[in-house]
Amino acid sequence: MMTSTGLVYLIALPLAGAAILLLAGRRSDKWGHLLATGLSAASFFLGLYQLSLMLGRSSAQRPIGQKLFEWISVGTFKIDAGLLLDQLSICFVLLITGVGTIIHIYSIAYMSHDLDRRRFFAFLNFFIAAMLLLVLGDSYLNLYVGWEGVGLASYLLIGFWNQKPAYATASKKAFIMNRVGDMGLSFAVMIAFATMGTVSFSGIKAAAEQTSTAALTGIGIMLLIAATGKSAQFPLQAWLGDAMAGPTPVSALIHAATMVTAGVYLITRSNFIFDAAPTAQLLVVIVGAITLLFGALIGTAKDDIKKALAASTMSQIGYMILAAGLGPVGYAFAIMHLLTHGFFKAGMFLGAGSVMHGMNDEVNMRKYGALRKFMPITFITFGLGYLAILGVPPFAGFYSKDMIIETAFNAGGIKGIILGSVTLLGAGITAFYMTRVMILTFTGTSRWDEKAHPHESPWLMWLPMAILAVGSVTSGYLLSNGDALAHWLSPLFESHEEHHELLPPIVVSALALTLVAIGVAIAFLKYSRSGVDAVAPSDVSILTTIARQDLMQDRFNEVVFMRPGQVLTSALVKTDEVIIDGAVHGVARSALGVGASLRGLQNGFVRSYAALILIGALALIAAIWVVAQ
Amino acid sequence: MDVANYLYLSALLFTIGAVGVIVRRNAIVVFMCIELMLNAANLSFVTFSRINGDLNGQVIAFFTMVVAACEVVVGLAIIVMIYRSRRSASVDDASLLSR
Amino acid sequence: MMWLTILMLLPIVGAGAIAILPKKNEKLTKQAALATTLIVMATTMAMARGFERDNVELQYVEKYSWIPAFGINYALGIDGLALVLILMSTILAPVVVLAGWNESHGGRWSVKTFYILILVLETMMIGVFAATDLFLFYVIFEAMLIPVYFLIGGYGTGERSAAAVKFLIYSLFGGLLMLASIIALYVISGAQGGHSFDLTQLSDLEMSSTTQNLLFLGFFIAFAIKAPLWPLHTWLPDAAHSATPGTSVLLLGVLDKVGTFGMIRYCLTLFPEASKTFTPLILVLAVISIIYGAILAIGQRDLKRLIAFTSISHFGFITMGIFAMTSQGHSGATLYMFNHGFSTAALFLVGGWMMTRRGSSKIADFGGLQRITPVMAWMFFLAGMSSLALPGLSSFVSEFLVLVGTFTRYPVHAVIATFGVVLAALYILIPVQKALHGPTTPGNEALSDLNLREKIAIAPIMAIIISLGFYPSPLLNVINPAASHVIAQLGFTDPVPTSGGK
Amino acid sequence: MSELAMQVGQSAAPEAVLFWILAPLTLIAALGMLLVKKAVHSAILMAFVMVALAVFYIAQGAPFLGIVQIVVYTGAVMMLFLFILMLVGVDSSDSLTESIRGLRPIAITAAVGFGGLMVSLLGRATLGRGAVGVEAANADGNVEAIAQLLFSTFVWPFEAVSALLITAALGAMVLAHHHRIQERPTQRQLSIDRFRKDSLGAAAGLPAPGVFARHNAVDVPALLPDGSPASASINASLKARGDLQNSSIFELGTVDTSASEEK
User: Fold this and answer.
1) Option in B15, B39, B80 nearest D114 (CB)
2) Average pLDDT, stretch C64-90?
3) Which of A232, A395, C416, D38 is the most buried (most CB within 10 A)?
4) What is the pTM of this model?
5) Domain D2-92 annotated CATH 1.20.120.1200
6) ipTM for the complex?
7) Based on C-alpha coordinates, what's the Rg of chain C?
């Protein structure tokens, strides 16, 4: 593999930005955001440069690496701080830095009134650096550093306005649920080291063949747990909705476009493990399918525009995970959907931010309505993203999502039918709830507060939205034209034999579009025709109630983990005080007690001492007698 | 006659002396009981001397007597002291340790 | 050159100098103490430069006859393990002096006495790691209690006397058991070629397994009290709660390390067979400590007690690493000792500043500090991140090494212990949220941010935490040979990759 | 009596007679010591026990010890006891009720146990041979034989014991020595005090006890001209010891004149 000395700058530039902004403090308030944006952009152009270099090489020569220094080396456990840039990482590098830079630009305007804007940009830069480390690390442990780094950045950014207790709690929840997932990653590293003696991607890829399926399945399941945590997949999905507490650009960048897709990256990157561990792969598919429907169902009931989008994100990542779980045939489609999703979902989030910006930070869609006239640019960019996520041809989502549905059907047998149906159903529900969002926000009658003065956002905000909208329109075609992305990525994955086709592609597309149309139609009937209340109706079906409560995910966590945990904690605190420390004090007290009772013998009367001496002599003689016998 | 009878006598006298030390309150009587115990021991020494056929036991008994004499001298002086300050010869009155 | 003796003498000389300084001039006293600790630190670093990394034998050896009648020597010498710990102690000492500039004021005795105690303690801290004669070790091990007792009982807060006595009695109890074992070793050595307290000679003794087990327990209980292992830990929260932050740093950061150091240096070296016998039990206790300490930390309402319980969890990790008997676990445990010293120091010092400013150690009394005192809040946050072993910070390297090293031999223990990582996130983020985040609560509006002195004090700790997180090799290179040597002496080799049974 | 004992001691049977007569008496006397109320009676019984022991010594071939026993114990030690008894109050009697709860049963139980244990141990002990007897050792005379031992083998203990004896004597003197807290009053001071009192009644000296009284013992107060007893006429020590009669019974008014002179 070729080596390069330039890779580290991809990470170092934004990292330096974060360090400078944090250390310089208020002094950098004036220029901090510009520096951060510039460094992020620099990183993006560096990425483009690396891409151009990569395009100039033959496909076998494309992956390049860089060894920075020996990080940890104990016995056979040798980890270099090394970077790896291959066809897969470059996609992510460009997505992260590209969308990242766009969102930096957006944030300049969005956060312009915030006193702590500099700190916000420092965190954003830190996030970019950590995310780049995640996708560039050449071993699981290096990836792990980035993995937790983005978790930290996410924590800091969700809790950016942590003076509000609810936001602080949301950030804590996100960090802790992520940590549960991270634990899976550390287990995976441990199992890998114990069974293969290495944790680098190349090393494990080479050793995977000699390793038992059981071990690989174990690693795969652990990686899946890690992915569910980071990508808000079932069963560790509960944090994503609350994570919307962060500023909207954060939701767009971290909780829609990049960080939450890290799980997809992890599974795709570990293709050599999952390909050899069918059980783990099956679990990946199941998790993807469940989350896909789970997120979509939540999305139908959410009135908070950001939470509706978050539920949608969850659902879309479910698609990606499902695709990644389908094996070599699905990896490319997972990545493709990831990239297109990065565009359209980030665009929609920025659109939501723009709406909130114009509506005094109101997030309840029931207080929106008829904003089309007041925010035309936002409406158009959002609408393009909407069409893309629906999968309407020729928008981006059509290419990527149809591929996934098709591949799901082709998975073979009953599995294929189930997965195909699930993905189709998901597409229908997606159409329903996204149409609902559109209708509630942009059409119908206005249901604003009196104080609201909706207005279009400044150009610094709509320009990024526009760029992303262009991406939402074109990226699908560009990536799938002639299977461009699939060919680009194919050297990384094992070649696969074509499955038999259950349904011809055209039928799948037609089915999908039909379901989408049905979903749109239902939403129209329900919301556009009959109008919408400004207050959420309470006489709704149980299903809606449950969906509003995120399908009881928080209730479940509370009842199963939190409450018992709290009881256990307070019980243990009591135990420690009463039993363990009590035993210690008990020893002290019993010593005191023995002393106090023996003190009664020391009554000062010489005659009782004499009696004791006599008893002592008696005991002594008796003892000697007994022993002497 | 069995020489051991002297030993039985000695043991009984010793026991009586011990009981006396415990139950009597007059310091002088207590002292006499202590003397009784010493004498009982002396009787044993003398008897053992006879049993073993050498005079070491008698010499020890002799020393015991001397030591007992010393003890009586000092002890009675102490009793006089106590009596002088407390106007009482009861050992129970000298129980300052309990307070 | 008698490096180690000089190192031990320097603080004593400083203490002597302080003793003759005028009592009135407290500032001069503090400056003298700071200067002394800085000189000791510089001397230690100068000594460390000459340390031969790959030499597994003891270095800087000194040996003089002390009490020839009993074969007692004044014998010093260090290996990589001891060097790392001495380095940590001598770096922490000036930091503690500087950070706790005003700690000595509320005490029962004078400011002078405080610094004399600190310096005397520093001498003993060096000595206890450098001693290679069992008797000398024991004397210093016990003598260390004296300055700490007075530091807690004389300068602490709250029920300081009770806490000091609890600490003392706990430690003395352990020390007594160890003394019994030491005497037994001495007697056994007399029967096998001459009475001796020399560590290398004692490690060659032939003992029946019962004898070895009993003597091992004597040592181990003493060390398990020092490095609090469940269920012998209850003195620590009380002591840490009552001690001043600086004292707590020395107590948890350095003194408690004597326990884990002793497990490696004495338990493993002197009783290899017994160590193997007790390994399953000790590993279970270590895992319990990890989880138990973490859960109790979550349940604490007092910041100092919380930090104390996090340390119990961390000491569980260290003990687990030691007894995992792999080079990764062992190196990780040693590195953990070093890192824990600094991360706990950071937590205690910043927490201490918070508490002195607020006049309370209850977490509930704080709130919204990030708005009022951003630098202090960030330092606390960073310290907390170090405590929960965030990758990129030094404690991650050590914690992960311990986990990986344990997993290769004892997967179940490692898996359970890993849950402590999640709990760590809880016990750090809960106080972070309550104290730093949220709206500013009454009583906190007027708190002042860190001043220059405090920034200077905390800066080196943070620098070490971050730089070692990314580049731990300088320390690992010193630790690895010593760790592998111990493992090899015990007859262990690292498990080879199993390929999962294929 | 010692001669008799010597003769009796020569043969076995007379010794048995002596033992079986004297031993029960000794035991009874010892028990009596415990049971009698008055300390002076205890002392008498004690003297008897000691003399009896002296007889046993002589009977067992230790005439020197027997004599020393009589001289030192019954002579010196018991005299000392009686002397102190007189000082402390020869008539004062102990109450035999126990003041420390539970002590007496404990003491008696322990004593019975102790005595029983000793006796049973002695009973089980087997020597394996008869008594050697000290006749051979006493061939040159008991006193000579003891002297031989005392001044050769036991010369150091002997010296140490003599030092002890002297120390004890000195110690007793020091202990019994009364430290004056105040300056001893001079004759002059005493005279002044006498005349400066509230009344001049005692200026010529206190009345002597027994004067104009129906008894002339030191513990009987003098009668004042009005017939009332003068408590000042009795020695303060006697009063302090409580060894005086109730002076009110000597008041003239209450005296039954028909009673005979003698009491």
Assistant:
1) B15
2) 87
3) A232
4) 0.79
5) yes
6) 0.71
7) 22
